[in-house]
Amino acid sequence: MTRILIVEDDPDVATALRVLLTRAGYEVVAAADGREGLRRLFADGPDLMLLDIGLPGLDGWQVLERTRDMTDLPVLLLTARGAESDRVRGLRAGADDYLPKPFGNDELLARVEALLRRAAPARWAGAAHDDALRLVPERRAALWHGEEVRLSDIEYRLLQLLVRNRGRVVTTDQLLDQVWDDPQGIGRDRVKFAVLRLRRKLQQAAGEGEGDPIEAVRGMGYRYRGETGG
After folding, report:
1. Exposed, middle or buried: residue 187 (CB in 10 Å: 0-12, 13-18, 19+)?
2. Rounded to whole angstroms, how far apart are CA atoms 169 and 221?
3. 132: which strand partners?
4. Contact at 8 Å (CB) between 137 and 42?
5. DSSP code, position 64
6. Is the CB of residue 67 less than 8 Å from the CB of residue 35?
7. If we measure between CA atoms, which residue out of 197, 153, 151, 201 comes closest to residue 179?
8. DSSP character string of 138-182
9. In what residue span(s) does the OmpR/PhoB-type domain sit (predicted)?
């Protein structure tokens, strides 16, 4: 049965959505805030997520960002904000569709059906990228040679971007653009020091006998080369 995750803090809206989708034949799981939504996302592996933007604590924008760290499953944003700038922001951040409140039941079901019809089976991050490294997106961490390395949000995004481009140089400008939420005014030295902290954490976790998996390419940027041996 197709599973849908609802992340919505308004209990009346959440209940109405659960009833509507259950009657339409879907299995429904729900979360009332962003952190619970991320936990349910990872634990339940839904086929689609309905995500409210105005969540307490960890808001919908942050949930969307972290969701895209883990999976490419369809995300339909639900929000009282109807401004074009918010719609554009949501789509650029990785949402698949956008539905302002209030909305009709028939329109919601039609959009859900369309997203599910177009979507391929969701891919999930976290599998081993090589024998030495495994990303742990739900904890913003990595397992390096079996040792857990706790990372800041910036360090996690740096490592993830480098791993996705394994063997290819990622330039400093690309790191600035894709890792920092607001790259304006962030100097290139900030990238260098963030990468140094990340490399130090990996080396400390693995111990003296293991090589550095991240290579600095002078004048260009950085490259993830994976396990290198001593």
Report:
1. exposed
2. 6
3. none
4. yes
5. H
6. no
7. 153
8. GGTEEEETTEEEE--HHHHHHHHHHHHTTTSPEEHHHHHHHH-S-
9. 124-226
The residue type found at 126 is: G
Angle at 58 between CA 54 and CA 64, to 5 degrees: 75
Whether residue 49 contacts residue 5, with contact meaning beta carbons closer than 8 Å, is answered with yes
Pairwise CA distance, residues 141 & 150, whole Å: 5
Helix axes 153-164, 60-70, angle to 10 degrees: 40
CB 53 within 8 A of CB 59: yes
Q: Going along the chain, which residue ranges are E strands? A: 3-7, 27-31, 48-52, 75-79, 97-100, 133-136, 141-144, 147-150, 170-171, 214-217, 221-224
**Do 67 and 75 touch, CB atoms closer than 8 A?**
yes
pLDDT digits (tens, 9 = 90+) for 48-107: 999 999 898 889 988 998 888 778 889 999 887 666 777 788 888 888 999 988 899 999
pLDDT digits (tens, 9 = 90+) for 180-211: 755 565 667 888 899 999 999 988 887 765 66
Query: β-pairing, 75-79 with 48-52?
Result: parallel
Q: Which two tokens stand for residue 90?
A: 């949501």
Angle ∠(91,93,99) on CA atoms, nearest 5: 35
Question: Which pair of tokens denotes residue 11?
Answer: 């209990």
